[in-house]
Each structure stands twice: as C-alpha cells, then as structure tokens.
Design brief:
Blueprint: H1 2-13, H2 15-53, E1 65-70, H3 74-77, H4 79-86, H5 88-93, E2 97-102, H6 108-115, E3 121-126, H7 128-139, H8 144-147, E4 152-156, H9 164-167, H10 174-187, E5 190-199, E6 206-208, E7 211-215, H11 216-221, H12 234-245, E8 251-258, E9 261-262, H13 277-289, E10 305-312, E11 314-318, E12 330-331, E13 333-337, H14 344-356, E14 366-370, E15 372-376, E16 384-387, E17 390-393, E18 397-409, H15 412-422
Parallel strand pairs: 1-2, 1-3, 3-4
Antiparallel strand pairs: 5-6, 5-18, 7-11, 7-16, 8-10, 8-15, 9-12, 11-13, 13-14, 15-18, 16-17
Helix pairs in contact: 2-10, 6-7, 12-14
Length: 423
C-alpha cells in the first residue's frame, strides 16, 4: 500500500510530466490501434481476392489484363504508397495481369490514353483530375467507339473524389474505401454513366462525368483553403470576406438549350442464344418467299433551340450520375441556376452547404432539362469554370450529353443502397 501511495504522490508532484506522458501514450495507443484495424481490413480484402485467384479458367482463356493509370501526386503525394499497400496486392492475388502507368505531370494522362492498347479493363487510381484527364483522352481517340466499351474502375486516391459516392460505400477510413473499390472491380458489376462533352470555339472538347460549375460560389470555394487558420469557421469567413470586396456577385449569362430526348430501352445484359439450325432454315425460307418491306429511312429533324437569359449567383450543368441506377424516361442533362436575390446572410449559409455538396440547390433555383446547351457570356467576362473540380478559363461553350457512354464498376452494396433510396 505504501508503494501505491508513493506512486500517486510522485505523479502529483510531477503533474506536468505525468499529463504529457498520458497524452503521448494515449495518442500512441490510438495510432497503433488504427494501424491494426487497417491491417485487418487489408487481410480480409486479400482473403476475398484469393478466392477469385483460385477460380479455374479454361485452357484457351487468358488472364484478365488491366491497365492502371496511377497519379502518384494525388493525395499530397501519398497515392503511390496507398495503391501499393491497399490495391495492388488485391489485384495480384485475384490473378489479374496489371500494367501500371504512372503520370509525371498534369495533363499527361490525356497523352497516355492516345497510346493505350486494347485491355480487358481500365483502372483509374487518383482523384477527380486524373479521372477527367483519362476519359478526355479516351474519348478523343479515333477508335473511341470501340474503347468506350471497356469497363472502367475508379480507385479513390485523390483529395477530391466526386464520383466515388455514386459507385462505392464511403466511410471515414481511407484503407476501407480503397479496398472496397478494388474488390468491386473484381466482382465485375457495372453501371452505365452519362458523359458531358464540353467544347469551346477553338479548343478540343473536354469530357466530364459530374458537371460544369460557374459563378460566385465556385469562386469563393477556390479561396477557402487560404483561411485554414480559422479552422471550422474558414468556409463562412471566406464567403463573408468575399462579400466585403464585392456585392452583389450576380452573373449574367445567355443559355440556349434543346429539348431532352427519349431514353431508348436498355439492351439485354446477355446476348440471346443462337436459334437451332431448323429454325434458321425456316426463317430464311420465309424471308425468301415473303421478303420484309423496307421502311424508308427517317429524316432527322433539326434541333430546336430555345434561349433564356439568366441572372444568377451560380450556374451548374450536371449529369444524373449522382444516382446512376435510377431509371429515367429521358436522356438529359440538368441546367441549375441559383436566384440573384440572396442576402449576405443567405449567401453565407448556402455557400456553407455547397462546400459539402455542390449539387445542392435552393427551392427557388431555375432548373431546366436539355440534351445540349450553349453558354454565351457577356464580353469582358473573366473567371473560371470548374469541370469535375478542375479549373478551366471561362468562355462560350457548347455542352452536349453523351448518354450512357461509359461503363464503370459499381459495388453491389452501393447499388442496393441507391435502389432503396428511390423507394
């Protein structure tokens, strides 16, 4: 008992050192426990991947080939280490023959896609910028009609991963997000996604999966990181300081748009089996004696464009890829414009919500459905667009929807969750 009393007396007399030691031990224990949980997640994912690798293949079949476009600079330079520790072992254990192509500078992924050979699957390991460069390089190719049928997997390694919530179940654990995204690629379930083709007057087209954003909220969002020292108040402070420099922050734009088109029926997932020989012979004889009447080719009617002038704080042209499993009657893009009569307080409140989800719009916003649209900005208008969180100089552009252009791997759990949300 005397020894216990002596220990407590020592701790009381040296309370500063004791407090510091407790803090260090607590932090160290929490860090070690986090590392242990990460290793457990990796082990569980590798055990699942090993079952895929043990599956037998026919003698004439070959191993699945995957081309990985990896951006080592993503996630503040941690992407290469994250991929090697969490994704690469899963792909190797599953028996996938992977070719890793690392980018060295911004924009290189577009050039690499021009040289890519035929592959069974394409995997993008990076963030929004890497994904946007890859699909732009892919759809600029002359043979994009064939290569666009290649399924694409997305492993979220960037600081911004806007498409990831549409494809995977997200958590607060980076290792879990990466391993679950990699396993969804192995399971092979895909979903079609729409693509936006954005073309200026002179430059080559740029392609996007989420949308084009322009306006005051976008401009403020680009400056929020400068107020890091204000902690959780930095978002509201950035919006408030911006109103002190200039108010109101209204943008004028002329939008021309064409009506959305009806969505054709989905093609069957599997090709129907070939009829037997007798059925084919009978069908040919029937067509020989009673040839089918050829219908005259349909004359395509010219697109009918409507024009609308908007006065807005922000314009967002977006796809419906936020919920890709939802069935729709029309193939369309959404043109969303915020009203121009916000007060300063409303501007700060709405801006704080948009920092969490830029696709959120107020009840009084203007929403239009279209298959294509043209933006005409007033002369002398500066600023920038955000195209899938990548900055581009603002200019007159034409945005056209390419419905269900690409197929991406999606986790079965996320598909079920999205379907349940619609009910």
């Amino acid at each position: 008992m005397a020894r216990v009393v002596k220990v407590f007396r020592t701790l009381r007399n040296h309370w500063k050192k004791s407090t510091f030691a407790v803090c260090v031990l607590s932090y160290g224990g929490h860090w070690l426990y986090g590392k242990h949980c990460d290793n457990v997640l990796r082990r569980e994912a590798c055990l699942v991947a090993r079952e895929f690798g043990r599956q037998q293949i026919a003698p004439h079949e070959h191993l699945r080939k995957a081309t990985v476009i990896l951006n080592p600079a993503a996630c503040s330079g941690k992407a290469n280490n994250l991929f090697e520790k969490n994704a690469a072992p899963i792909l190797h254990l599953a028996g996938v023959e992977i070719t890793i192509v690392k980018t060295d500078y911004e924009g290189q992924a577009k050039k690499l896609m021009e040289l890519m050979e035929q592959t069974d699957m394409l995997i993008v390991a990076g963030g929004d910028g890497t994904l946007q460069e890859v699909i732009t390089g892919l759809l600029r190719r002359p043979d994009q009609g064939t290569l666009s049928n290649t399924p694409i997997g997305f492993i979220p390694l960037g600081s911004h991963n806007s498409l990831s919530p549409s494809l995977h179940l997200l958590s607060d654990n980076k290792v879990k997000d990466i391993t679950s995204a990699t396993l969804s690629i192995l399971k092979g379930e895909t979903v079609p996604l729409d693509v936006l083709q954005i073309k200026g007057e002179t430059e080559q087209p740029v392609f996007a999966l989420m949308g084009l954003r322009w306006g005051a909220f976008r401009d403020v969002a680009a400056t929020i990181s400068k107020y890091w020292y204000l902690g959780p108040l930095k978002t509201k402070a950035a919006h408030w300081f911006n109103t002190l420099r200039e108010w109101p922050l209204v943008r004028e734009v002329s939008v021309s748009y064409s009506a959305p088109s009806l969505r054709p029926p989905d093609l069957p997932a599997h090709k129907p089996s070939r009829p037997n020989l007798l059925h084919r012979i009978a069908r040919r004889l029937k067509n020989y004696w009673n040839p089918p009447v050829e219908e005259p080719p349909k004359v395509e009617e010219p697109e009918e464009w409507k024009e609308q002038k908007l006065s807005t704080l922000e314009l967002f042209i977006q796809t419906h890829n936020k919920n890709p499993v939802k069935r729709r009657t029309n193939d369309s893009l959404m043109i969303c414009a915020e009203p121009d009569n916000f007060t300063v307080g409303e501007f700060i409140t709405v801006g704080n919500k948009k920092e969490e989800d830029p696709t959120v719009f107020t009840k009084n916003s203007t929403k239009l459905e279209a298959s294509a649209c043209r933006l005409q900005l007033p002369e002398g208008t500066g600023g920038f667009y955000n195209i899938d969180n990548e900055e581009y100089e603002a200019m007159p552009v034409e945005v056209r929807l390419l419905p269900r252009k690409l197929r991406f791997y999606i986790s079965a759990e996320r598909r079920e969750q999205l379907l349940s949300q619609m009910q």
